[in-house]
C-alpha cells in the first residue's frame, strides 16, 4: 500500500484482533511503530511487537495507557508527539475502544481505518475529504506468524509445505475414481492389521483374492513404487510408503489442490500447534491449513469409513468435535472444513452444520478444487 510510504511513523491501538494493525505494517513498514497498550492488552501487544520485529526492521515502542480512559490516552499521545517531532506520522484507529480512536484522531493530522474486507479509509490533512485504498491481497504472512499473533504457537516438527511428487499419481487417480476410493477401505484394513501387530511392519497379507477394483488400486500403487505385490503378500519399501497408502495420500492430495488455488498466501500440512492461552487440551495437529484474503482456513482430512457398524457414535463425532473446539484460533474470520473420502453419517453432517463446519464427502472430492474456490469466495462475501 504505497500511500503509507511517506509516513515515518504509525501509531496503533492494540486490540484482540491483531491483523488490522499488523497487515498495514507488513505491507509498508514504517521506521517506527508506537503501540498504545491498555492493561488488558499487554500480552497481545507483546506478541504483536514480536512479530513486527521479526518480520521488519521497524522500531516498536509500547506506550501504556492504563484502562484506556480518555486522559490516559491523551497523555500517551502527548508522549508520542514529543518523540516524533519533525517526522511524518499517521494513526491507525482500527483497534482499541471508540474513545481511544476519538482521542487519537484529535492528536493526529492523518489517520486511517481498516475494514474487515481489507478496505482502507484514510482521513486528515493529506487526504482532503478522504481517500480509499485496499490492502494488497498478496501481502506475505506465514501461517506460523499468523497463528502466533493470534495466540497459537507452531511447534516441532515444522509444518510440511511439499508433497511427494513421485507418489502423487496414485493420489490423483484414487481421488477422482469412486471405485478406487472404495477399494482403499480393504487396503486400509489390511495395513491397519499389520501395523497393529508391528508399528514398523513392512508387509501385509490379503486374506482373500482381491477384486477388480482392488487389483487396479494395487497396480497403480506398484507403478508408483509404493508396494510390491506377490500373490497375497504386500511388501512396502518403507514405513513412509506404507503410511502413505494407509491414508496420508489423501491429506497430500487435498494439500496439492490447495496449492493450486489462486490467491493463497501460504499453505501447509501436518501443522502441530500449541494453544498458548489454554491450560488443557492445548496441543493439536491441523491436517491442511491455508491463508487467503488474510483469513485462516483449516481442513481436517479423513479416509475412515464412518458408516461402519464397528464405529460408535462418539467416534463419529470426534473429528467434528475437534474442529469445533479449536474455536476461532486464527481470529473471528477463521473457516473450518472436513474432507472425507467416504460418505459421512447423517449425525456428523448435522453436527458440522450446527458448528459452521464445511463438509466435502465421497463424490464431492472429485470436484474439490471448485468446492474450495467457492469456499474462499463465500468467506469473502460473508465478511
Automatic annotation (TrEMBL):
SUPFAM superfamilies referenced in this protein's UniProt entry, alphabetically: Restriction endonuclease-like
InterPro entries: Card1_endonucl_dom, CARF_Card1, Restrct_endonuc-II-like, tRNA_endonuc-like_dom_sf
Card1 endonuclease domain residues: 240-377
Protein name: DUF1887 family protein
Domain Card1 CARF intervals: 9-145
Protein source organism: Neisseria cinerea ATCC 14685
GO terms for MF: nucleic acid binding
